[in-house]
Amino acid sequence: MTTNEPVLRGEGLTVRVDDKTLLDRASVGVRGGELLGVVGPNGAGKTTLLKALSGDAELAEGTVYIDDRPLSDFDARELARRRAVMPQSSYLPFLFTARDVVRMGRAPWEGERGESEHGAKLTDYAMSLTDTRDYAVRAYPTLSGGEQSRVTLARVLAQETPILLIDEPTAHLDLRHQHLVLQLARELASEGAAVVAVLHDLNLAAMYTDSSVVLHRGAVVASGDSQEALHPDVLSPVFGIEFVLQPHPELERPMLVPLPASVSHDRG
Length: 268
Fold this sequence. Notes:
Elements: E1 6-17, E2 20-31, E3 35-39, H1 46-54, E4 61-66, E5 69-70, H2 76-82, E6 83-86, H3 98-103, H4 107-110, H5 117-129, H6 145-158, E7 163-167, H7 175-190, E8 194-198, H8 202-208, E9 211-216, E10 219-225, H9 226-229, H10 232-239, E11 243-246, E12 255-258, H11 261-267
């Protein structure tokens, strides 16, 4: 069930590096029970927005709130118990096993006490959900990019937080696992979690998300219901290519079909 008020929201978020503005007064909110997609071309500010919402980016302006409480009011452990973050990549030069990496998600709850029975069960369950149990004793650096991505997602799930921020969770994944991961995100939202996912594939965003934010040059150009935000009239000027909507043979939501440049010119 979706809550009425955002459990996580950012107001007027601006991030600058030197003289470059990476995020320009962006405002966004996600409610419990909602899967929010963040889309846009390369360099639009998607990852920067996720870092701003997680507290991992220094803000020049704006404030992030969890349940109407500024992020700055949370200490590190408390924040780690409220939100979990899956980055684009997790570089681990040490030979941790995949299961060790997933267990790291339990640190905010178990600290140095060792693995509890609940933590062990949750770690194994998270690996089952992400189809990674076969890698449990494999050294994390030896896994493929897609395998590492799913192990990292399992770590996020093991962290057991009501807010999840996941950056390009389908990167490096084959088609089956792309859908597995987004179906999992969809299920988590349906169980009450607030989930924000940066996505490159517009049709996966259209298929799975409840609402979407479209970024362009660091600014929010559209937000709201995904069927409205992910519309050719919005996306074509952002991506510099025309799209048309085509009905899907199985789903109620139409699919976005990009037109080759030659066809776009012919239509102009």
